[in-house]
Design brief:
It is a single chain. The protein folds into 2 domains: 5-81; 87-134, no CATH class. The protein is rod-shaped and about 80 Å long. 12% of the residues are buried. With 134 residues, the protein is an all-alpha fold. The longest helix is centred in the N-terminal third of the chain and has 40 residues, at 5-44. It has helices spanning 5-44, 54-71, 74-81, 118-122, 126-129. α1 (5-44) runs antiparallel to α2 (54-71) and α1 (5-44) crosses α3 (74-81). The structure holds zinc ion.
């Protein structure tokens, strides 16, 4: 089953928003750890004792990394994980491999299986569908 472009774009927007939100939350958690580290480190005058504060440092680093991924790389990560299906032209019937050109209905003319509706627009030759110039 090939998802149509609209639903892929909808899922992408949802996933990207969730990733950005998680980045914001991770940034806040990382900032809280950094604040706790700073308060304790300044009071005890051992701020740079990285062995003592290793868990704080690990939390700050991992939350900061997640914050960067969520806020900066949300778009590329989403595009990588949820790619748009761009079929080669002409598309072929998934069942019999018949070349599907200029379909009038979402059904293979050779073997008769029902196809997703997107095949009708994909089967248009590129010049007619206006995709040749791009
Ligand atoms: Zn077929």
């Amino acid at each position: 089953m090939i998802p149509d472009v609209a639903s892929v774009l909808r899922w992408r927007a949802l996933f990207r928003a969730g990733l950005r939100l998680s980045g914001l939350v991770a940034g806040a958690v990382g900032l809280a750890f950094l604040t706790a580290w700073a308060i304790e480190g300044v009071n005890d005058r051992d701020f740079f004792s990285l062995y003592w504060y290793r868990w704080h440092a690990a939390a700050v680093a991992s939350c900061g990394l997640w914050c960067a991924v969520g806020l900066v790389l949300a778009g590329p990560v989403t595009r990588f994980l949820l790619p748009l299906h761009r079929p080669a032209w002409p598309p072929r019937c998934p069942a019999c491999r018949h070349e599907l050109v200029s379909l009038r209905e979402a059904r293979c003319p050779e073997c008769g299986i029902e196809l997703p509706g997107a095949f009708v627009s994909w089967s248009e030759p590129r010049e007619r569908a206006g995709r040749g110039a791009a």
